[in-house]
Amino acid sequence: MAAGGHVIDAIQYSNWTRAHFEEWHQGGLTAVGVTIAYHETARETLTRLAEWNARLVEHADLICPVRSPGDLDAARADGRVGVLLGAQNCSPIDDDVGLVQVMADAGLKVMQLTYNNLSPIGAGCAELDDPGISRFGREVIAEMNRVGMVVDLSHSAERTTLEAIELSRRPVAVTHANPRAFTDTPRHKSDKVLRALGETGGMLGFSLYPPHLPEGAATTLERFAEMVADTAEITGVGCLGLGTDTCRGWDGRTLDWMRNGRWRRVPEAERHELAETPWPAPPSWFQSPADTPALAEALRARGFDAGEVDAIMGGNWARFLDAALAPAPDPGCGPTKGPTG
Amino acid sequence: MAAGGHVIDAIQYSNWTRAHFEEWHQGGLTAVGVTIAYHETARETLTRLAEWNARLVEHADLICPVRSPGDLDAARADGRVGVLLGAQNCSPIDDDVGLVQVMADAGLKVMQLTYNNLSPIGAGCAELDDPGISRFGREVIAEMNRVGMVVDLSHSAERTTLEAIELSRRPVAVTHANPRAFTDTPRHKSDKVLRALGETGGMLGFSLYPPHLPEGAATTLERFAEMVADTAEITGVGCLGLGTDTCRGWDGRTLDWMRNGRWRRVPEAERHELAETPWPAPPSWFQSPADTPALAEALRARGFDAGEVDAIMGGNWARFLDAALAPAPDPGCGPTKGPTG
Q1: What is the DSSP letter of B88?
Q2: Helix, strand or coil for residue B124?
Q3: Residue among B87, B104, B73 nearest B4 (CA)
Q4: Which chain B residues contact residue A55 at CB under 8 A?
Q5: Are A84 and A33 in contact (CB under 8 A)?
Q6: Residue B105: closest C-alpha in chain A
Q7: How far is residue B95's CA from residue B112's CA, in Å, rounded to a whole number?
Q8: CB A94: neighbour CB atoms within 10 A?
Q9: Residues of chain A neighbouring B143 (CB-CB closer than 8 A)
Q10: Which of B5, B98, B105, B137 has the fewest other C-beta atoms within 10 Å?
Q11: Do B50 and A107 touch (CB under 8 A)?
């Protein structure tokens, strides 16, 4: 069981250099979830894993891998920031349920069932229609439960999200999304989803990606704290954490890859325009992960007590991940879901 | 450190069914190294890994994975046969040094630097010329040393083999080959290689593949014991083990894949002939792994004492593998090679 004192951001995707890992230390982070794939196939994901393995060796004084229960506490005790690798799509398993374990063994510990589009598992939040979880999807969720790979529903559509929460024998995560009550688009989560997360021991990571915030980059820090407080009324505090979706060092070409991958042709002019587009500017109070302590301060100012602030800043993710990364004790039957302890 | 009482066969490649795992139990085996790739690319190797993961779940009452130090003893204590996955070629890493760790993490713990042909690392035993270990090969050996993947030189040519023994900071394995003094072809190992293995704490697994035996399937069990005894004079007993190269349930189409892969075109008539060819018949005294105890009996009859028989039957492999599967304590510098303890 992870001890207290964790500061965890469930999702970032930057154009990684050592400076980003130094910012993590400046922000007091103890662990960060990083995205390694949006549309990558199994083979391409191997290269992304190899790149991260090399970073973890080169910057071993600053960062270390999080793959198993206990790794979070070990990283923190060591004064290093733990790195948890994840994918925002099911493309890394190439439609093969057997690749869930292979990828988990190789270090991929979190996987979204869908990105924005329909996948062989279910529907993404930008899809035309939402058929819920497919036959293959049921097999994949069971296999993820068995091996200890976190089911992430951040980009999934409503029915797909609700069915996945219901079908998963282990609590699931929404690593980065906000309540629709604050940002009313299909990318965000309805009260029904939030309640289901709270009732099953799931997790919601609040996103600071400007387009996810109610007033974009102009959203105030007080408004962020209000969003957390209002959500806690629905889910309970034990369900909440950070998933800032911080993306540093990119321009619009990366947005192009995220949005368009290889699933649609993008006219040359539009590609050029995307390449010229700077990344959305962050709010003034969260210019980089070095500003993470400001979030805790805002939660305290909003009236959360010290234990609640610790829980939201990382304690909840630490507890969730320590349980989630363990293989299911009985391979045929994962742990029963229960409310957050 | 693995305790005594192990019976280990370093290499088999069968058309796996439950019956083969039952034969392992009948033969008193505690662990078996199995080949999962001859010419498979990285992507294809993922599928082979997934197939083995599924077997390990389906037959969990009989077999369990060997991936880390201690797994051999745990398997034996559990009454299950440990399974160590390996490749007979470097094709699984797709010429990418970063895939060494990715594949090791995914469960591939042994890798030949070459099969019969030239690889980007060095030359195989059937190659026209032998340039020794390449620039890439030096990087791959260092990386295998770092992550704890066993360097296997069974099919490598002479210079490549000797240079790999010299370059590797950790002892290497020849999982399946015999001394050239008994079977004089480039597939087998010269006295020079045998001495180098003995001096560096390496291992030689004796092959029972009929074409590897001096008189083929007609080779007597006494002759096998003589081969072991004569080799021990060169290497010492601590260097020796079994690597039977048992292949069950195949016909000549599998030989076709092994020999020809996709590197040469095989005329239709030759393919047809290969398909019609039965697998080489085994010697009468080793029809299947269920006959493994006969090998120990023959070694005793030849004059090896009880401790030496235990060592050759599995104790040496257990000691070697327990050390080999641990990541190097200092990532920049693997353990110094030393003579077998």
Answers
A1: S
A2: strand
A3: B73
A4: none
A5: yes
A6: A106
A7: 14
A8: 17
A9: none
A10: B5
A11: no
Q: Which is nearest to B174 in space by CA: B144, B194, B147, B159?
A: B194
How many whole angstroms separate alpha carbon B208 and alpha carbon A88? Answer: 49
Sorted by sequence, the CB contacts under 8 Å of residue B79 that are 6+ apart come out as: none
User: Phi and psi for A218 in degrees, rounded to 5?
Assistant: -85, -10
With 0.90 as the threshold, say if the pTM is over it.
yes
* Pairing, β B203-206 against β B8-12: unpaired
Name residue, tokens 């090679």. Answer: B337
Show Cβ contacts of residue A290 under 8 Å, excluding neighbours closer than 6 positions. A23, A26, A27
ipTM above 0.90 for this complex: no
* Least confident piece of the model among A154-163, A332-341, B59-68: A332-341
Say yes or no: A101 contacts chain B, CB-CB below 8 A: yes
How big is chain B, counted in residues?
341
Number of Cβ atoms within 10 Å of the Cβ of A341: 8
Q: What distance in Å separates the CA atoms of residue A330 and residue B6, rounded to the nearest whole number?
A: 29
- Whether A340 shows a pLDDT value over 50: the answer reads no
pLDDT digits (tens, 9 = 90+) for B297-313: 999 999 999 999 999 99
The structure tokens listed for A162 are: 């609700």
| Span A145-196, pLDDT tens digits | 999 999 999 999 999 999 999 999 999 999 999 999 999 999 999 999 999 9
DSSP, collapsed to helix, strand or coil, labels residue A110 as strand
Give the C-alpha separation, A292 to A9, whole Å: 9
Helix (H) or strand (E) holding B259: helix B252-260
A16-25 long-range contacts (CB < 8 A, ≥24 apart) are: A16/A55, A16/A249, A17/A249, A18/A59, A18/A62, A20/A248, A20/A249, A20/A289, A21/A59, A21/A62, A21/A63, A21/A81, A22/A62, A23/A248, A23/A288, A23/A289, A23/A290, A24/A62, A24/A63, A24/A81, A24/A289, A25/A62, A25/A81
Cα–Cα distance measured from residue A179 to residue A231, given in angstroms and rounded to the nearest whole number: 7
Choose, out of A41, A103, A105, A139, the residue to mutate when testing the contact with B (most B CBs < 10 Å): A105
Q: Is A43 in CB contact (< 8 Å) with chain B?
A: yes
Tell me the two tokens of residue A246: 């911080």
The pLDDT tens digits of the residues spanning B137-160 come to: 999 999 999 999 999 999 999 999
Contact B278, B247 (CB under 8 A): no
Total residues belonging to chain A: 341
Helices (H) and strands (E) in chain B, counts: 13, 9
CB A170 within 8 Å of CB A149: no
DSSP assignment, residue B314? I
Considering chain A, what is the average pLDDT of its residues? Answer: 95
Tell me which residue of A46, A42, A104 sits closest to A326, measured CA to CA. A104
Question: Cβ contacts of residue A166 below 8 Å, gap of 6+?
Answer: A196
In the structure encoding, which two tokens stand for residue B283, read together? 């010697």
Q: Tell me: the pLDDT tens digits for A136-146?
A: 999 999 999 99
Nearest CB partner across the interface for B96, out of A50, A99, A103: A50
Residue B58: exposed, middle, or buried by beta-carbon count in 10 A (0-12, 13-18, 19+)?
exposed
Work out the number of other CB atoms within 10 angstroms of the CB of residue A61: 11
